[in-house]
Design brief:
Length: 136
């Protein structure tokens, strides 16, 4: 019985290992950052941020970055990731946003034998709305 419960618990990736926002928004040309919190027992594991494919748990090579436990920061193209091991969170950032960057993403942990993740919906709007006041 306990084995069945343990296996069921392990099949719910990310629901207990990571927390973060459900949704984040940005504008074309701008940037955004996502904070993903993790438990103390995951300090020394690889963290990742990626645009999700339409299959559960699979990432696209497009906008994929991971940081091994031996590093605190990494940048790859327009994407960066930084791990704050003292405060138990990592931050993933994307700069020079495009509309194609919209979609589901995963912040995750890669642990031997499985990956845990938290899904974040990213929405990129065409342009920032500005209100201009013209003097007569």
């Amino acid at each position: 019985m306990w084995t069945l419960l343990l296996v069921g618990w392990m099949l719910l990736p990310g629901c207990w290992a990571l927390t973060g926002p459900e949704e984040i928004r940005g504008y074309v040309g701008g940037s955004l950052s996502v904070r993903c919190d993790y438990g103390k027992s995951y300090t020394d594991y690889t963290k990742f941020w990626c645009k999700k494919r339409y299959f559960v748990g699979l990432c696209s090579d497009y906008l994929y970055i991971e940081i091994p436990s031996s590093r605190l920061m990494k940048t790859k193209g327009r994407v960066s990731i930084a791990d704050d091991r003292r405060q138990l969170f990592f931050t993933a950032s994307i700069v020079n946003l495009t509309e194609e960057d919209s979609g589901p993403y995963q912040c995750g942990l890669r642990v031997t034998g499985w990956s845990g993740w938290h899904e974040v919906k990213v929405t990129v709007f065409p342009g920032e709305f500005l209100i201009c006041f013209l003097a007569p």
